[in-house]
From TrEMBL:
Gene3D superfamilies: RNA 3'-terminal phosphate cyclase domain, RNA 3'-terminal phosphate cyclase, insert domain. The keyword ATP-binding applies. GO terms for molecular function: ATP binding; RNA-3'-phosphate cyclase activity. It catalyses: a 3'-end 3'-phospho-ribonucleotide-RNA + ATP = a 3'-end 2',3'-cyclophospho-ribonucleotide-RNA + AMP + diphosphate. It comes from the Archaea. GO terms for biological process: RNA processing. The active site is at residue 326. This is RNA 3'-terminal phosphate cyclase. Residues 16-337 form the RNA 3'-terminal phosphate cyclase domain.
Amino acid sequence: MTLSREPDRELDGSSAGGQFLRTALGLAVLRNESIRIENVRGDRPKPGLRHQHLAVLETMAAVCDAEVSGAELGAETVAFDPTPASAEPDGSPSLEGGQYEVDINTAGSITLLFDALLPLAPILESPLRVTATGGTDVEWSPPLDYFHEVKLPLLRRFGLVAACEVDRRGFYPNGGGRATLHLGPSQLESLDLERRGPLEAVRLYSTESESLADRDVAHRQLEGALARLEVGEGDAPAIERHETTAPSPSPGSALVIRLDYGTGVAGFAALGERGKPAERVGEDAADGANRFLEREAAVDRHLADQLLVFLALAGGRVRIPAMTDHVRASRELLEAFDIALELDERGDDVLVSSGPSDSLL
């Protein structure tokens, strides 16, 4: 399909990956503008759309009844126009919600698909339900427990109406996991995440496929993490342990550690691999948590990137642990949509802020 008009914005993804595509599609809907992206995933060894990116594009097009071109595997140029159907008479963006089924066809990430949809909540007129089949705990994406137990609870605190329902896990290489995102009309509040406060709790979520249950993988991952965590005695946080044995077409495991502060929250994850001891999986996640414990940031480095669009939507302040390439690329993309975020380096951390006058909506 060829778009019926020239795009409002031309974007270049030559130095970015899939997150650039996902965020750009959401921004186009929120701004009610058409876009063309050249050099999609241009800095990846295999540029262009892969299965999970195509699933995001097709789902966003279905939800918004948008016009799309380039919706095919390997496409390096994509055009997306949500304006024919997703607007009120005054031109402001609006979506009706509804129910959708998505099959990513591979172990492509379900959580990244859901991530792309979350920013649409403020313009929903009715609830949106998306059930997806694919990978729930796979490389290069947030494990399901990170999305379900770290990101969603934090965003709900600031007004997001969202929940995730899990039917089965999908590990690499077969995927086959199934989960449903429930997203409701939301009025987002300004993000107040400048200071994290005292450490109050440590929560560990360890998951194994049924095929690994006889080896006590989930339990051993927890033991490895707890043995490595360096939580000071003076902090005296509560510790919660959650072990899950889940049906899955592929053998696999995952561990997520959540650090709960008075205000801030941070998550750290590791996935099981063939030949890797379960204890080491737990240790890897704990190593990330230990590095964060030494800093003053309010959120982890992955939330840092993912929260920028919500800063643009609702305003606020977030203290992040580093200016990563993902944060830099997301900030530049927001600037391409005329949204400026202010940066204030504070020692090793960075305070990112946006005022109400800079809001996307």
